Amino acid sequence: MSTVRESSKDQERWDEIGRQRLDQIVKDPTAFVTDSSPYEAKAFHDDLLTSLGPPQGKRILELGSGRGEFSVFLAKQGAEVTGIDIGSHLVEASSLLAEINHVKAQFLQANVTRLAFGT
């Protein structure tokens, strides 16, 4: 029973974070046009891209895509990206972020612990 309650609380928390982000994007969309990585820690960014290799032409699934910044960054590098997150408003904000940045990226709302791949 507590797992269901925790999942519901997580859902509410992420929806609120997404709602706030969506409000920010709608208020000033030009502030969200970017060509840079969302990761301030350059070493982390570099390690991640080294492991991934050149994103161009790759199909990438980002689990827990949050506000969509890394998915949009990868799409700008030529990747075909699908982001999944639990927060419906995060998905909405991410989709708007992709639109503002003129990239094609798909965002879906789902709980990553219950994905139906392979069934």
Task: Give short descriptive properties of this protein.
119 residues
Which strand-content bin applies to the residues?
A: 5-15%
Q: Please provide the ordered H/E string of secondary-structure elements.
A: HHEHEHE
- Annotation, overall tally of beta strands: 3
Approximate helicity band: 40-55%
Mean pLDDT over the residues: 88
Radius of gyration: 15 Å
Lateral strand order in the biggest sheet: 1-2-3
Distance between the termini: 26 Å
**Which runs of at least 5 residues are low in confidence (pLDDT < 50)?**
none
What is the overall silhouette? globular
Secondary-structure-based class equals alpha/beta
Structure annotation, total helices:
4
Main sheet? 3 strands, parallel
Q: How would you sum up this structure, described in words?
A:
This protein has 119 residues and is an alpha/beta fold. Helix content is 49%, strand content 13%. It has a 3-stranded parallel β-sheet, covered by helices on one side. The chain is globular. The protein starts with a helix and ends in a 10-residue tail after the last strand. The model has no long low-confidence stretch (mean pLDDT 88).
Q: What can be said about this structure in brief?
A:
The protein is α/β, with parallel strands linked by helices and 119 residues long. The chain has 4 helices and 3 strands; from the N terminus they run ααβαβαβ. A 3-stranded parallel sheet has the order 1-2-3, covered by helices on one side.
